Amino acid sequence: MIPVEIPAQLTKDERYRLISARLAALAAAERDPLANLCNFMAYLYWTVGGVNWVGLYLLRDGELVLGPFAGKPACSRLAPGKGVCGAAVRAGKSQLVPDVRAFPGHIACDDASRSELVIPLTVGGRTWGVLDLDSPEPARFDETDRAALEKIAAQIEAQAARL
């Protein structure tokens, strides 16, 4: 079992490096990519801190469809180009939203969410889905989170490529 405890004295960068290393250990211990994606979402949920939802939305026939996640039940389908997740797919780049209530067209799957970070995922040069992190804290995510989670997204993409 990979521990979810993160030493409090670590900087945010050190924290994310440890999270990434532990995700690699999880993947090394299990050959099934779907099991790994499920565990990745649970691990991020318990270790990133200050989040109320972490999960994947998978691009299926032009819609974003709920994939592995940790948190409360969520919207099963997101219309193309709608909300923060749709904006990430449309723009092909991460969306860092300090106040979701100020984001035009935000889709509230959980009214407690106040900030969001969405990272597009690509496999073989095409968008495969998004990594979505929600927080009940306004401005929870910053550029350090974005950069670190974009690196972690590469670990997610490596699993997705094996599905």
TrEMBL record:
All residue ranges annotated as the GAF domain in the record: 18-162
Pfam families, A to Z: GAF (PF01590)
Task: Name the InterPro entries for this protein.
Answer: FRMsr_CS, GAF, GAF-like_dom_sf
Alphabetical list of PROSITE patterns matching this protein: UPF0067
Name the source's superkingdom.
Bacteria
- Write out the similarity annotation: Belongs to the free Met sulfoxide reductase family.
Q: What is this protein called?
A: GAF domain-containing protein
